[in-house]
Amino acid sequence: MNLTLKIWRQQNPADKGGLKTYELGGVSEDMSFLEMLDVLNEQLNETGEEPVAFDHDCREGICGSCALMIDGQAHGPEVTTTCQLHMRSFKDGQTITIEPWRADAFPVIKDLVTDRSAFDRIIQAGGYISANTGSAPEANSVPAPRDKATRAFNVATCIGCGACVAACPNGSASLFLGAKITHLGELPQGQPERDGRVASMVAQHDAEGFGGCTNIGECTAACPKEIPLDVISQLNKDLRTAIRHGH
Amino acid sequence: MAGSTLHDGSSPLNQAAKQTSDDAHGYYVAGEPLVDPVTPTGPIADRWTTRRFENRLVNPANRRKLDVIIVGTGLAGGAAAATLGEAGYNVKSFCYQDSPRRAHSIAAQGGINAAKNYKEDGDSVFRLFYDTVKGGDYRSRESNVYRLAEVSTNIIDQCVAQGVPFAREYGGLLDNRSFGGVQVSRTFYARGQTGQQLLLGAYQAMERQVAAGTVTQYTRHEMLELIVKDGVARGIVARDLVSGEIETHLADAVVLASGGYGNVFFLSTNAMGCNVTATWRAHRKGAYMANPCYTQIHPTCIPVSGEHQSKLTLMSESLRNDGRIWVPKKVEDCDKDPRDIPEEDRDYYLERIYPAFGNLVPRDIASRQAKNVCDEGRGVGPLVGDFRRGVYLDFTDAIERMGADVVKEKYDNLFDMYERITGENPYEVPMRIYPAVHYVMGGLWVDYHLQSNIPGLFVTGEANFSDHGANRLGASALMQGLADGYFVLPNTIRDYLADGPFEKITEDDEAVVEARRSVEKRVETFLSINGSRSADSYHRELGHIMWEYCGMERSEEGLRKAIDMIRELKKDFWTDLKVLGTADSLNQSLEKAGRVADFIELGELMCIDALNRRESCGGHFRAESQTEEGEALRHDEEFAYVAAWEFGGEDGSPVLHKEDLIYTAIEMKQRSYK
Amino acid sequence: MATVTAVKNKRSSRSTIALKLLMALSGLIFIGYVLAHMYGNLKAFSGQEAFDSYAEHLRTIGEPLLPYSGLLWIIRIVLLVALAVHVYAAYTLWARAGKARTTKYAVTKRVNSTWSSKTMRWGGTALLLFIVFHILHFTLRVVTPGSNSDSPYERLVGSFEIWWVSAIYLVAMAALAMHLRHGTWSAAQTLGLTNTASARRNANLLGYLLAVVIAGGYSLIPVFVLAGVIS
Ligand SMILES: Cc1cc2nc3c(=O)[nH]c(=O)nc-3n(C[C@H](O)[C@H](O)[C@H](O)COP(=O)(O)OP(=O)(O)OC[C@H]3O[C@@H](n4cnc5c(N)ncnc54)[C@H](O)[C@@H]3O)c2cc1C
Ligand code: HEM
Ligand code: SF4
Ligand code: FES
Q1: Host domain of residue C21
Q2: Taking CB atoms and an 8 Å limit, are C107 and A247 in contact across chains?
């Protein structure tokens, strides 16, 4: 396959940046999208142009590092992560535009790499169950109803990639936030801190500069882990309950 | 202290009298034998309890004054940071990713072992201990392994309390499965994403401490040097990967939890950034590297599809519980549609050779047999080079027996992943699998306290050589990472820290300045060689050499050849490398160059270690050491030791220290799965 | 780099979600009101007498407990407060969303947005303008195209007979339909009532239903006036 790539190049956070066009040949259908970029980078290295920076690590769709906006869609045209997207999803001769996540809470560091530490701070605000090492009771002493445990698991699969934010017209992180609230809120162990958790996590979300949700649903369509919109409903409900309880 | 028995380069070959073969002669220098200075004694079941009691305590008021650096935020590092933070120590945590949650532990799929015996199927701490030692082919330390089995049950309690959503039965209690060729069901799992869920538990616990102010997290920071003052570890030099700034961080103790170095093979199931830099730098500063050649090759990975492949994807081993592995009997059938090959022309070779264990034989055996049938020309899938590298993993029978729905329920995410990568639907066409490098049992040498031979330097998780001997059982790495992080290290490091706070060391201390300068110089060198080849291309080449000669089967001839090739490659690297960009910004090529430089040096040591170990044990198969039937043959009289290598200087040979393995609770047996 | 620090003790009632809750509640008040209002308007089909006595009846409900027009004033105040809250929250969140992404994408491709969800803000603004016009028209009688009779029925018929007045009302109803389509579902979600896939489907269906019933119901009047059925 031959491709025309329009890639966002930006030297550093202060740089204005812009799209640059590259021609790339010899791409095979079995390559992953990132392997295609590896080939481009190898070519750039040869011609003396600095390779394109992009985040990636596991390349199997679980670490949440990779994060590219491909032709206006977070992680590209399939429901998967960028690293698990394969070139068979594109056509020979196609022009592909590649941009970084855009959100003021995710400032660009360089080229396609952004700073997503806002997510860590949201977790720091309360995305945990306080259980010091050694203080845990015997695991089977607290049964967890299977359907609740299953729902908790389904939403705990969030990989923290930020595609939901990237795709959201409001730049909201509600899907990410809702996934964690739902995961911990469905488990018996998560009950004692439930109100405080949602109150502080939402406050941190807002302080980071993410937008408010308008229930459009672009997030869930972009989410590689198919986190459903009902986690946002759950988030709203939990916050409402917390307000009622005086938070 | 064993660490102080520094080698004097002129000593004669040690224990030469006992030695009947010395394949690696000329490649190394023999050093003094090594003993674990804190090895416990007494009945095996009491050793850890006793030691926990004997280890000194640190006054809570003092903990705040004690700084601990932890490099790595995987299960081992994340759990340790959380626990030490909770205890009140002042922790600095480092990782090269943009968030601690992305550490490679996230990728583990299958599960975590624990001797809970919830199924009442005869499991116990002793049985888990026994299985692990046996699985490791009697090349691990029995006290360590027993401790691991003992704390395994606490891990599950801890994780459940943190909200890890393990699979549950209808009654709401925890479910277990049997995993990786073990006959009891002791594996706890969270669908195919156990590592992710466990890591998120540790990560969240750690973030809680970040909020509490006990842990400071440094993401996108790469450790590039260890600071050793007067023989004691006192800090690290790290590069801020965003600003490019070289920073020094000083502390009372340093913990390396930096994961495994499987990426020395270029293609592996490890994440792209997994590296040996942290441990290799420590090795160069005096820490011993133990059993570096012990590598685990995992049998169920998606085969290589082409030249540009950047990594291999593991398919959980649980697939072997229901899938049947086969290749065509006849070479001419190999490019046919597998569905057209009749039953009688299929060779279910594992079931044929190992009727008792069938498809559930240990990883090394399953891997080697796959290689054997492919070497015979009976591999399937596309030709890569002039070989077909793949065998079928067939679910047709399972779908018939259990119904497609049950199969879907159990394996859907794996099947999806397979289809996404290969474009083939495994419900219809048998999957193709091939072995890939997955895990390294080797790592920095540590004593029972997880302290290396450099005082103040602790090593946990996959980064140490620890508990798996020559081969690791499935679902045991997660167990070890969390055991080290939550329960072992916090109880051993306190004995060391009880002597602290140590005398403050300042930024302008000679040791600090020297370490920092060496890093700056190295970075400058990479950027100024200005040759023609990318670091990646060297990595790929190194990987080929390692896979070919230090992979599933190793021979004296091959290893010698590999060592020569690696030495050539190293020269070429330092003269013809090309790294563009600058030192003062995010520069992924520069990061890569540093990692590859260390991999090259490690690769050579791995080959030397493999050459020295003229026996087949666990994941290490030496062509010269097999039974008539082609099974692995161990040599306990000669090789029942840990090979701990000391860095021999820039152009010197590594120095081999041997730690004898002594079993009191278990009797050494030759492994047989027939 | 982003140097946001941990926030402490921030009230949840000041959060984006609280704003959304206010929007949902005020929106529900609107929905309740427009339903009742529509029921009243449809009296136009029963002729002038029925319609005018209904209008008068509205002013005398609750007497003598409430003064003349008392209930009407209560409704007006509630609606005004709801409007203020709804509009304040809408524009605050709009501004926030703008600040959340100041650098736009070169290429965007929406795959899951309904047309109605994309037009909430501009559509809502159109509704605001319409509401002003509507009040000036029927309540304050400042703009009185067609008729300024004291009979509400005559004013209604008189103005709708003018094509562009009917057009304004019909366009506004289309905007209302869209706003309700997404608004109903969105309010259910904001109130945390849609925690399962089936609840989500039902909320969406309800949105369509309300959109068709309410906007359709109101539109009947100008349409039938134009068609000469109501005169
Ligand atoms: C695909 C796959 C599946 C697996 N499945 C299973 C399974 O089912 N069960 C099981 O028991 N085991 C499994 N394993 C093995 C297991 O996941 C790992 O051995 C284990 O997670 C390692 O944990 P760790 O904490 O030691 O290191 P890692 O999780 O690898 O963490 C390493 C950390 O060190 C940091 N780091 C590394 N170098 C540097 C540096 N120079 N400077 C700064 N930071 C650095 C990284 O950022 C990272 O945070 C699997 C492994 C793979 C590859
Ligand atoms: C006065 C002019 C109006 C403006 C500017 C306006 C604007 C908005 C906006 C921007 C939203 C948010 C969209 C979203 O969250 O998806 C919204 C939601 C809503 N609006 Fe309006 N609107 C107006 C009038 C109305 C009217 C007249 C009604 C009812 C008849 C109404 C009912 C609703 C409902 C039910 C919601 C959903 C609340 C939620 O999202 O939780 N609005 N409005
Ligand atoms: S909710 Fe989905 S899109 Fe958002 S961070 Fe999690 S995995 Fe990524
Ligand atoms: S690189 Fe890990 S999810 Fe894509």
Answers
A1: 2-226
A2: no
